[in-house]
Amino acid sequence: MHLKALVPPILLAVLACAGPGGKDEGDPMDADTDADTDADTDADTDADTDADTDADTDTDVDTSGACSADLTLRFPDGSSTTLACVQHSLRATYEFDPDAPPEVRTFDLRISGTDDAGFDCWVNLAIDGVCGTGAYALGLAASAHSASWDCEGVSDAYEGEYALEDGTITLSAVSVGGGTGDLTGLPVATSLVGEVVASDGAGFSLAGSFSVEGDIVGTDAEELTCADDALPEDPTGFEGSAVWTYDFTPAAEAYGYADCAYLFSVLPTRSASSGCPSCELAAMLEFTDVMTDCDPAESLEGGIIEIGIDVDGERLYGGDLGGSWTDVSEQDFEVRFGERDVTTIASRSTDAYVITVEYVFGW
Fold first, then answer.
1. What one-character DSSP code corresponds to residue 13?
2. What is the H or E stretch that residue 73 is in?
3. CA–CA separation, 341 vs 284, rounded Å?
4. Residue 294 — pLDDT band, cuts 50, 70, 90?
5. Residue 14 belongs to what H/E stretch?
6. Backbone phi, then psi, for 28, in 5-degree steps?
7. So what's the pLDDT on residue 27?
8. What is the pTM (predicted TM-score) of this model?
C-alpha cells in the first residue's frame, strides 16, 4: 500500500528533504519516498499524583528496589531536561488466585530526578486496570503528571506541575513473583518495564523509558477489572489518539535524522469518510503535538490522517479523505491488536527507520 493515504502530504514533502544540508546519493531515506504513518493513543488524565517519594513507613510502597529511567521533559520553546531515576516510590495492587501467580492490577510509580527531599523534579505514572503488557491510553486507564520546579536547566517560565492528557504508557514487561494463593500482607516481588509518550496539548511533552522492581506488601484488587471496555453502541461517539514514532537507523542518523514522535488526536466534530469495509470504528485525526524533537513539526500543523478499524476481523485501514480505503494490515504494516478497547499497534521497517504506530480509542 502506499502510505500517502495515511500521511499528510506536507509531511511526505518534509521528510523528503529533512536531513541537514539536504540529501545526497548515499542518504538511506532516498530509497523510500513513501514515508510513514503512525499513531497511538487517547487523551485525558486522571492521575494520583500522591505517590510519596519518601514513603518508607507505608507498607504498600517500595522505595528501595532497583530503578532506572531516561525521561525527557520538553517545553514549548524547545528546551528540555532529562530525568534519571535518582529516587522512586512504587505502589501496586494485585489479583490473587489459588492456582496462579499474582497479576498486577494497578500501579503508581513516582520517579524523582533529585535525591533532595526539598526539591520537586519528578514524573508520576499510574495505571488502573492493568491487563499485562501493551499500550494504555492516558485518560482511559492511565495517567501521567510531572513537576519541573527544581529540574536542572528549566527556566522560571516553565517551572510548575503538568497534567499530561494525551499519549500512552506502554508496558513491555510485567513480572510478579511470590508463588500462588492469597498473598495479602506478604511481600510480592514486582517488576515493570515500559515507555511513556505524553503531552499536555500546549507544547509540554514527556517521552522516555523506565524500569523498576521491588518487593511490595500484597494488597488484593480482585474486584478491579482489566481496562477492557466493550465497543460502544454508537461507534461514532468515541475519542482517541495515535502516537507515530520513528526510530532511525545509524545510517540515517549519520545524515542528520533524529528519532521522532508525533501525536494525532481524533477530531470529535468531523466524521470519517464512508465506505470503510467492516469498520466498527473510523475517524479523522489531526496533528496535535510533537512528543520528541522533530524538525518537520511546524509543517505538520493542521495535518489530518484518516483511519478505520475492523475490530472483529483485526484489520487496519487507511483512508484518503475522499472515500477510498486501503487495508494496510498485511501490506506496508504488521498490525497487532491489543486486549483492551481498540488498542492497535502497527509497525513497518525500512533500511532507514522503523515506524511504530499505536492507536488507542475509548468512549
1. H
2. strand 67-74
3. 18
4. low
5. helix 9-15
6. -65, -15
7. 59
8. 0.57
